[in-house]
Request: fold
Amino acid sequence: MYIINLHQIFILMKKQLILSSAFLFLFSLIAKAQFEIEETLPTGPTTALQFDEPEHHFGTARAGEKVQHIYRFTNIGNEPLQLTNAKGSCGCTVSNWPKDPIKPGGTGAIVVEFDTKGKSGPQVKQVTIMANTDPMHTILYIKGEVLADEMDMVNDEPVPQPKAKQYWPVKTPAYSASVFPNPTSGKFTLNVLEANGQNASLEVYNNQGQVVSKADVANWEGSLDLNAADFADGNYWLSVKMGDTERFSLPFVVVR
Reply:
């Protein structure tokens, strides 16, 4: 005959309670993981998203400057593309991204801004785009180097260095480019006097990063009249590529 005292019974019950708690905890982790996996899966028809430049190198920037870049993309699938979110990593924000569906073959743009304040040295930041694609997440990168000190030393004395003039988003045009009149209510003119004889590619983006107009011009002749009569009031960006130079952008405003 075995005699089990109350102390032994308490120990057995404690062991069973620990095992039960551990099982419930493990079950909750598995259930949570399954839920998170299901949550990231796209619902409904999916399409395909292709960026012209998923990785952008901005070169160098002084600490405290804000670097911007336009990431252009195309819906290369057979269903309308719907972006649901766009998030940047530390110091990196998405100021504009299309909210309306983009039809197959359609294009759009995402405007990313990187604030270099408090940063120094090589930088690698990423932006996560969520859309009805498979997989749902697309990663963009912005890379470069931040110069921590805005002052150079001459004879052991700090000498402030002027910041370079920047055009939106980051590229400084190789030409003296201007938009006139700005603001405009209808027809306006793009002047790029030094680009005579070169081929030009023009795109107009609205504040949501959508292409609202585009044109290709052969043998540029100093200036070009553009029509904004059908544009709604608001801020726009004229993206320009002249010959083999890098694309740059100029902001303009439409008012009535």
Summary: The helical segments are 6-40.
